[in-house]
Amino acid sequence: MAAARDFAEGELVLCEEPLLAFELFGASPRQEVLAQFQALAEERKTLVADLSDCYALPGRPKSLHGIVETNNIAVYSLGLEAAASAPASALGVVGNLLSRMNHSCAPSCEASWTSSRRASGRIQVRTSSAVQEGAELTLFYEGGLHLRAPRAERQGALSGYGFRCACEGEEAQRSDERRARMGHVWRGLCSGGAEDAARPAPEALQELLRLYDEEALQLHGAALGHLAAWLGEEHPSVEWWRRRAPEQ
Ligand SMILES: C[S@@+](CC[C@H](N)C(=O)[O-])C[C@H]1O[C@@H](n2cnc3c(N)ncnc32)[C@H](O)[C@@H]1O
């Protein structure tokens, strides 16, 4: 999907009612998807069926499962109501426009849910940096979960989408080191480094933000969702990050 005009950072690219939106870490996502699909109006069923299925063999029919695996984008949102058993508030979302977007490990856009309530929300995509007319509008399919991981790990996480992300180039080695460091700092923040409520580990957060900048990753909304899910919305680190997040 290419930009039809210039977009400023943080601009709304699309906002749509999802075709399917299921709990990624729910007890039975396949059954949930099937029930949602069966409840769709006929024309919306056709929109789902028109999406690609990277699992379908040549000449053989597509399957709902294959379409969902190929097209669901993981979205983590602050305060999103989730099943009590879920480790994070995460939805797998299939959308008529959303699912036309390609993946990039340094994406130009970020997807989020418009509401703290799953039932009343829509999926929206905003640019995370300025995008020029004609440039591709891309998303990180895994919703940021594997964003702070080296290339090999990202490629493994993306294998279910039926393509191999071609992050190459001279910078690949340095990028791997930076993302490994991002993962390390991130895990420190989530498992103790930011536990002290009076002192939200500002050095670690600043290092993390600097690494985001060096990687040209302006995805603070996704980072915010993860922090909130793991530390709780009231944690000072979450508040610190919230001030840098794009408008919802
Ligand atoms: C969610 S769909 C994306 C929309 C699809 N390109 C279309 O034309 O409708 C996912 C599929 O797009 C392709 N794709 C997405 N991002 C890609 C990338 N970075 N490199 C290669 N193929 C990609 C893969 O075939 C993948 O199975």
The sequence of SSEs as H and E is: EEHHHEEEEEEHHHHH
Mean pLDDT score, rounded?
Answer: 81
Name the structural class. Answer: alpha+beta
The biggest beta sheet is recorded as: 3 strands, antiparallel
Helix amount, in percent?
25-40%
Distance between the termini: 22 Å
Rg (CA only)? 18 Å
Q: Strands of the biggest beta sheet: in what spatial order?
A: 1-7-6
Count the E strands: 8
Estimated share of beta-strand residues: 5-15%
**Which oligomeric form is depicted?**
single chain
Number of distinct helices: 8
Please give a structural write-up.
This protein has eight helices and eight strands; from the N terminus they run E-E-H-H-H-E-E-E-E-E-E-H-H-H-H-H. The protein is α+β, with helices and mostly antiparallel strands. About 5% of the residues have low confidence. The structure holds S-adenosylmethionine. The site of S-adenosylmethionine has 13 residues, from helix 3 and strand 5. This is SET domain-containing protein.
Highlighted features:
binds S-adenosylmethionine; 248 residues; 3-stranded antiparallel β-sheet; SET domain-containing protein; SET_domain_protein; alpha+beta; 36% helix; SET_dom_sf; 8 helices; SET_dom
